């Protein structure tokens, strides 16, 4: 037998053996239903001071629970892929490491965590490569930290004492939030969108991505991008600061008492409350025109706009 035929014979034998093993593995199901929920565990929140959820490639969904229990479900996957335990008052929920020969056959699923309104501890959610969503989670006395290395994050209709969202590669989408203290949203590669927020302070950093803020209230609102534009509509704050390395700023309908806008290369359009006389305007541009306002120091609202290269246009309403 030639060497070439011997190679094909060995390959054929390996495939036959692999097929036999697949047929012999008990309970191996290659067609897992997509939306069935199976219970992993439940816990009484009275003894729980923190919830920590960690997954590698599974989606994480956090919802409000109408009853008094913290409940954990598995969706579209074997619940045995999730482990949960309580240690020193912290409920740990974690995706098990799968080192089996057939781990590549596992289909993506989701970890569902139901959190009652009575929970007042710390919530930590971390996914390596999986989408994270929080919806209807109303825990105004709890602090939440959400992080994803590669995956989008959604937070809607939720209330926390403080909220921090961090992604390396993935956008952040949020809306209808009530945050008693600080709201932080940071992404290295991806945009940030917040539509509806009542917060103590708002801090946004998007290294490479667009920032969009609308219907936002806060004492201080600061937003920064290295390469990406910023659009703000109906943002009400005492102090408003916007910085872009390369990207335009479009600011509409704000009553901020103190405004600072800086761009390295990008135009600025600002629609402000009141009239030009209300502002102490410090306006400068390296190369670009200025319209709608002249620099002056008469007003009682500090307005600082600086561009390296880009035009500045200011208009007023009211």
Task: Write the H/E string, N to C.
Answer: HEEEEEEEEEEEEEEEEEEEEEE
Quaternary class: single chain
Describe the sheet with the most strands.
22 strands, mixed
Amount of beta strand: over 45%
- Rg over alpha carbons: 26 Å
Q: Which spans have pLDDT < 50 for at least 5 consecutive residues? A: 14-35, 101-105
Specify the helix fraction band: under 10%
Report the span from N to C terminus.
Answer: 92 Å
**Number of beta strands:** 22
Structural category: mainly beta
Q: Can you count the helices?
A: 1
Average pLDDT, to the nearest integer?
Answer: 88
Q: Note the overall shape.
A: elongated
Short description:
With 318 residues, the protein is mainly β. The protein has 1 helix and 22 strands. Helices cover 7% and strands 62% of the residues.
List its traits.
single chain, 318 residues, mainly beta, 22-stranded mixed sheet, 1 helix, 22 strands, 7% helix, elongated
Would you kindly provide a written description of the structure presented here, covering whatever features stand out?
It is a single chain. The protein has 318 residues and is mainly beta. The protein is 7% helix and 62% strand. The chain has a 22-stranded mixed β-sheet that branches. 32% of the residues are buried.
Task: Itemize the secondary structure elements and their pairings.
Layout: H1 3-24, E1 37-43, E2 50-55, E3 59-65, E4 70-75, E5 82-87, E6 90-95, E7 110-116, E8 122-127, E9 132-135, E10 138-150, E11 153-169, E12 172-189, E13 192-208, E14 211-227, E15 230-246, E16 249-254, E17 258-265, E18 268-273, E19 279-285, E20 290-291, E21 301-309, E22 312-317
Parallel strand pairs: 2-6, 2-8, 3-7, 3-9, 8-10, 9-11, 10-11, 11-12, 12-13, 13-14, 14-15, 15-16, 15-17, 16-18, 17-21, 18-22, 19-21, 20-22
Antiparallel strand pairs: 1-4, 4-7, 5-6
